[in-house]
């Protein structure tokens, strides 16, 4: 599963905007809803894709071009780690992971995209917030999990940036949070073993979250351990 995200107050939010509870919250501090630590990140502008410094080291793939500037106008919170097996089981009542023997502090995996959205919605409900996603035509089948025919964004503009509830981070938010203003090859280091569990050091299994060094913002496992939605 991915990191959980929550929109914060952007420059267009006003203090008297009663329609958006998050815009009444100054995004100064980290938060821990339901015991999940979420770190505050201020919006900003950055180059998404392969930076010049990374290209000079031959560390980029073809799908990292063209490099272009992106501005995140809204602040946001992002989970300190991937969602763990324990966090998933407490909320969803099951553990779909292929590596349950890794332990409850390991990331939940074998979760499809629809199920990740459902988790975000359930998390919003526990915090008495409006769900970000409206899923329709959903069915569950053995071996495939939950599949839906459509998803709509539950916000006045139809954008996830304006959701009141919890959601998945956008690709731009994720890369912005991983880089935190650096040109490092991996999230927090140019040396993969410092920050990531990968093919050569993992023993072909997942590992407990936050057992490798974080990046400069304190986010763990943004490189390695599991694929993320």
Tell me what you see in this structure.
The chain is 17% helix and 16% strand. With 229 residues, the chain is α+β, with helices and mostly antiparallel strands. The strands form 4 sheets. Strands 2-5-1-10 form a 4-stranded antiparallel sheet. Strands 3-4 form a two-stranded antiparallel ribbon. A two-stranded antiparallel sheet has the order 6-9. Strand 7 (139-141) and strand 8 (145-147) form a beta hairpin. The longest helix is centred in the middle third of the chain and has 14 residues, at 113-126.
Q: Which labels suit this protein?
A:
single chain, 229 residues, alpha+beta, 5 helices, 10 strands, 17% helix, 16% strand, globular
Layout of helices and strands:
Blueprint: E1 5-7, E2 38-41, E3 44-48, H1 52-56, E4 68-72, E5 76-79, H2 85-92, H3 113-126, E6 133-136, E7 139-141, E8 145-147, E9 150-153, E10 166-167, H4 171-179, H5 192-195
């Amino acid at each position: 599963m991915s990191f959980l995200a929550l929109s914060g107050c952007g420059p267009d939010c006003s203090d008297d905007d009663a329609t958006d509870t998050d815009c009444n919250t100054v995004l100064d501090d980290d938060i821990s809803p339901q015991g999940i630590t979420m770190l505050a990140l201020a919006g900003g502008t950055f180059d998404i894709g392969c930076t010049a410094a990374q290209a000079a080291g031959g560390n980029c793939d073809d799908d990292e071009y063209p490099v272009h500037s992106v501005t995140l106008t809204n602040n946001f919170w992002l989970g300190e780690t991937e969602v763990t097996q324990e966090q998933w089981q407490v909320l969803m009542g099951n553990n779909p992971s292929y590596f349950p023997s890794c332990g409850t502090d390991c990331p939940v995996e074998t979760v499809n995209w629809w199920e990740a959205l459902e988790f975000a919605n359930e998390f919003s409900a526990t915090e008495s917030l409006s769900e970000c996603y409206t899923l329709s035509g959903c069915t569950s089948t053995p071996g495939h999990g939950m599949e839906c025919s459509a998803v709509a964004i539950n916000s006045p503009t139809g954008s996830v940036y304006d959701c009141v509830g919890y959601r998945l981070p956008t690709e731009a938010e994720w890369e912005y949070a991983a880089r935190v203003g650096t040109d490092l090859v991996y999230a927090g280091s140019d040396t993969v073993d410092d920050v990531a569990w990968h093919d050569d050091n993992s023993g072909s299994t997942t590992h407990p979250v936050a057992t490798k060094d974080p990046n400069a913002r304190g986010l763990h496992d943004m490189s390695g351990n599991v694929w993320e939605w």
